[in-house]
Design goal:
2 copies of one chain form a homodimer. With about 110 residues, chain A is of the alpha+beta class. The first copy, chain A, is built from 7 helices and 3 strands, in the order ααβααββααα. In chain A, a hairpin with a 5-residue loop joins strand 2 and strand 3.
Chain lengths: ~110, ~110
């Protein structure tokens, strides 16, 4: 039995970071440009405030996005992908293409 | 404040399926060709038997791989990506490219 090559631990870390619950959705939303917290909330309706805050902090720690606070009244907080985050576009769009081809649309799923 | 487009629920399901713990590693290993259970175990050293069996079942249910049992002695069980699974290659390789660029190599991480 031939041994397979070891799966690369760097790829493994990357795929699980992108795929961790909600992260993929947040990254997809921010590919369209910088967004405020409330906009992200609306783009991903099922996410809770606690999860969105936690994931945004994680993605900031990982260097995928930055958080800007504008001294307006009320204070305006905006999130923006870094270069490292934007460079996930090819991977994210490839997943989106695959999903369009293979994941049933919700309407079809609901009527099944 | 402009509303963002809703994040596509089909993309969201896909990214979390690929990124669910161990799934990305198993899919990567099977892109190199069909593999036996023990070969997958060796390609992903940290995975437990329980998790590998559970994830293989999940990926089979999702239609990403098939399980073949050859009536040899001892019985030989082999796993192989379906067309749907193989079509993830572009996405998986884009994540691997990104990881090569942005995720530190383990040796560097250990010495940090």
């Amino acid at each position: 039995m031939e041994p397979l090559p070891l799966v690369c631990s760097r790829y493994h870390a990357a795929v699980e970071l992108i795929g961790r619950r909600w992260n993929g959705a947040i990254l997809r939303a921010l590919l369209d440009g910088p967004a405020r917290y409330a906009q992200l909330r609306e783009a991903i309706p099922q996410i809770s405030d606690r999860m969105l805050s936690e994931r945004l902090r994680e993605l900031e720690t990982e260097g995928l996005l930055t958080r800007h606070v504008a001294a307006d009244a009320p204070v305006r907080v905006e999130y923006q992908l870094t270069g490292k985050g934007r460079d996930l576009e090819k991977a994210i769009m490839a997943i989106a293409d695959w999903a369009t081809r293979y994941v049933p649309a919700p309407a079809l799923r609901d009527s099944a």
